[in-house]
Each structure stands twice: as C-alpha cells, then as structure tokens.
C-alpha cells in the first residue's frame, strides 16, 4: 500500500490560480445544499436511483431495484413529487386499463450521487497538479489555502479543527497529542495514482487550520500525525 510522508514546509508558498481553483473545488457544499427537508435514507436511495437513469421508472421498477415493497416505493416516490424533487407522468401502453405511472427526477432535486465529483477530482489532479515537477508541493499549498478559509471567530483549538474535518468526511481521534485519522472519504474512491496528492492536500488543510501538527504518516488503513502546538 501507499506510504506517503509529507515533509515540506509550505507556509510561505504563494497559491497560484490553478491551486485556488483546486481549493475552491474541495470547498464543501453549503449547509443549504446538503440539508434538504424530507429526505431520509430510503427516500435518498429512491431519488438517487431516479437521477441515475435516463428514462422514467415505474413503481414496480423502483421497488425491484431497491428491494422495497411496492407500497413503500410508491410512498417515497409520491413524497418526492410533493417535495418537488420528482414528477409523475404516464405513457400509453396500448393495452386496456390505466397506464402505469412513471417517475423521474426534476431539475430542482438535490444531487445525490457523487460520481461526477470524484471524476472531476481525478481530472483536476491529473491535468493541473500531477504533471508538475512539484506536484505534491502544489497540492499541499492548495490544501493550506483551503484550510485557511475554514478559520472563523470560534476560539481555535484541536476540537474545533477535528469538527471541521468530521464535517468533510474524515474520522479523527486525538489521544495524548497523537492524531489518528481512522476514516478518509477519498481513500477507497479516488484513483490510486492520485491518492498521494490527496494526502498532500489533506496535510495542507491541517497546516492551514488552527493547530500545528507534524507530517501525516499514511498507513494502509490508518493515518497518524503528532500534534505539536495549538493555534
């Protein structure tokens, strides 16, 4: 597995337009975009399925694909219609009886899947960062800029930074001055050849926050860093 050790000191590095674009891409969605009313786990799965197909789906198709009872599938589909995230239509079947209802996601529905974001991440890394001789340094500088933007008026400290990391999908524990990163939202989904650059961005993010840590040592599943001083 990867064994990446970020050891550069980039606090004086100027951030280029390319790095700023990369930092902006990594900025998380606003709470308004993330927190949509009426979407529980099952309804989210239903909406994700509607968004992943180019054709409207019947209640039966949704129920079969998600292994739901038809009544449950219909309940969630109708709730999505009520919320404005899906729309109903009918298509004549040429047979007697009422034609089946068809459901499709609306343009107003919140994006559920993240495949487009992962692909964009890979494109940005491979086209704008990886070709550079100082690719890891540029990635860390972009992360530093990103981390700097998360600073607020809240009293700085380890707990504050760990909360910011948690909101971005990282699992982090602090024990006796040792930070252990138990979960990384990119490790299993980003292209393996680009992962060291993501680790460099992550190091830069922590550097740019309100605490100071040593190099993040990347292991097969868990990463670790030593807390040096609090900001």
Describe this structure in words.
The chain is an alpha+beta fold and about 230 residues long. The chain has 9 helices and 8 strands. The strands form 2 sheets. Strands 4, 5, 6, 7 and 8 form a 5-stranded antiparallel sheet that branches. Strands 1-3-2 form a 3-stranded antiparallel sheet. Strand 7 and strand 8 form a beta hairpin. Helix 1 packs antiparallel against helix 6 and helix 7 packs across helix 9. The chain is elongated and about 75 Å long. The relative contact order is 0.16. The N terminus is likely disordered.
What labels would you give this structure?
elongated, 3-stranded antiparallel beta sheet, 231 residues, alpha+beta, 8 strands, disordered N terminus
What is shown here, in short?
This protein has 231 residues and is of the alpha+beta class. 44% of the residues lie in helices and 16% in strands.
């Amino acid at each position: 597995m990867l064994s990446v050790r970020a050891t550069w000191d980039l606090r004086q590095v100027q951030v280029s337009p390319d790095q700023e674009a990369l930092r902006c891409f990594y900025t998380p969605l606003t709470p308004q975009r993330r927190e949509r009313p009426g979407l529980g786990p099952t309804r989210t799965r239903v909406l994700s399925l509607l968004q992943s197909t180019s054709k409207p789906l019947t209640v039966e198709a949704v129920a079969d694909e998600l292994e739901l009872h038809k009544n449950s599938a219909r309940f969630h589909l109708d709730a999505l219609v009520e919320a404005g995230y899906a729309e109903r239509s009918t298509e004549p079947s040429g047979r007697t009886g009422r034609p089946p209802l068809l459901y499709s996601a609306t343009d107003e529905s919140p994006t559920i899947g993240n495949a487009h974001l992962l692909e964009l991440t890979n494109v940005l890394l491979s086209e704008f960062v990886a070709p550079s001789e100082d690719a890891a340094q540029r990635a860390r500088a972009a992360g530093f800029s990103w981390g700097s933007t998360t600073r607020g008026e809240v009293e700085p400290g380890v707990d504050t930074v760990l909360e910011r990391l948690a909101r971005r999908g990282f699992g982090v524990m602090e024990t006796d001055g040792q930070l252990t990163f138990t979960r990384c939202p990119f490790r299993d989904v980003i292209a393996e050849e680009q992962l060291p650059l993501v680790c460099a961005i992550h190091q830069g993010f922590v550097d740019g926050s309100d605490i100071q840590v040593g190099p993040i040592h990347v292991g097969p599943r868990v990463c670790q860093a030593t807390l040096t001083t609090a900001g």
